[in-house]
Fold:
Amino acid sequence: MTVAIVGGGPAGLSAALFTAKNGLDTLVFDTDTTWLHSAYLLNYLGIEGIDGDEFLEVARRQANTYGADRHQREEVTDIEPADEGFIVKTDRDEYDVKYVVLATGQSRDLAGSLGCEFNENGTVRVDENNETTIENVYAAGWIARKDKIQVAISVGMGSSAGLDILSKERGRSFRDFDTAENAE
Structure:
């Protein structure tokens, strides 16, 4: 099954890490316009301080290591429902996918064109797994949370979406839990 992740910031890369690491074909479309380019992280648990660009470099490398297929500077222009999922249209090509994760920062245009419902505050309505009101479409990060957003929150939302997709594909609750013995 193929997962398309629209956005290459912390939410998108976190979802990509979980889905790719656990065997799902994962496409990440990244226009590289994340606000992280101007950030310095002092509030990310376990890291005493890291430049936003360096954080992105590490996160991208980690997603690549597990097989995420990153499409850097390829913009998603439309997403349409299809028989077995969705057709993701970009400025370069079209892709058939089963799942979509919208991690588009403050841009909610794709969610609106797909027919996702919105909350009163303008954010995309999601459930506890970050699934929108459209089956198999998830929203993670700023798109689903108004103003009170941090990298740690975005990463958690992306992870939640990734784990829910994996749970659906496996037909059971899925945990991604590594130990030192099984780490590569």
Observations:
- DSSP finds four helices and ten strands in the chain.
- The beta strands are 2-6, 25-30, 40-41, 50-51, 69-72, 76-82, 85-90, 94-97, 99-102, 137-139.
- The longest strand covers residues 76-82.
- The longest helix spans residues 151-170.
